[in-house]
Automatic annotation (TrEMBL):
Protein name: Translation initiation factor IF-2
Keywords carried by this UniProt record: GTP-binding, Initiation factor, Nucleotide-binding, Protein biosynthesis
Keyword Membrane recorded: no
Coiled-coil stretches noted in the UniProt entry, renumbered to this chain: none
Gene: infB_24
Keyword Cytoplasm in record: no
GO terms assigned for molecular function: GTP binding; translation initiation factor activity
Amino acid sequence: MVESGLVKVGCKARVFRNQQLIYNGEVVSLRRFQDDVKEVRVGLECGIRLDNFADFVEGDVIDLYEIELRKATL
């Protein structure tokens, strides 16, 4: 279940197991029921597929984030 924010296809993902980082990569697909979706909002459940990672176990924590590049200004 999405606990806060918004999950989007293409966002960065980190998977933690027992508070140890075990994966760092990208979300390649999201599903709600039988449908492929581009984003999932807080409070909703979804299926998630990460690039080159499928070794989930109960209790894993997935931390999702986006990198935003900004031009430096004075």
